[in-house]
Amino acid sequence: MMALQVEQLSHSFGGLLALSDVNLAVAPGERLAIIGPNGAGKTTLFNIVTGIFRPSAGRIRLLGQDVTRLPPHRRAQLGLARTFQITTLFPRLTVLDSVLLAEWGLADRCHAVTGRLSYGEQRQVELILALAGAPKVLLLDEPTAGLSPAETASVAEMIRRFSRDTTILLIEHDMDVALELVDRVTVLFQGRVLAEGSKEKIRSDPEVAAIYLGTDDA
Which of 64, 164, 187, 195 could form a disulfide with 1 if both were Cys (CB 3.0 to 4.6 A apart)? Predict the structure, then answer.
């Protein structure tokens, strides 16, 4: 049984086709990166998987159960969690009020008000909060966006330490960061799956290279 399956998924915003016939299958414990240029449909895919949007066509299965028509809270109850590109925390709570942090390297900041943490520390808190419910499948949307190189390294190390009990789908614009963290990669381009496979295959794919070198863009 797959942890997550996306079958022939399509979605339009008015006359704009954002996703077209997207198929994914992610095994339990696997770490899959979803990469591609801006406008490729990555966040739209996450919004459909989590129930924020309903697809124009296609099906989503979570741990073997069809969740296509379930609302977000029911999907969360079944073991699905996510983070967002923009940090969504309660800024007036202390870190200690938000979550137990000692084992994640923020113990010395446990009494700090969350809104006064550095942006990198806030991203770490958000990741820990996403794990608080012990999700079976975790979607991470650009977890290193806007971070300095040092903050990116800290967040990447945190993700590496996540238990394999949790299946991870990772959207990451920085291909180098993505390839460090995952087992397999799917490349979206203009709403379609352009390429998928091992990290080595994606790194050597000439079409993927063309996209990231800017000779083709979404």
Answer: 64
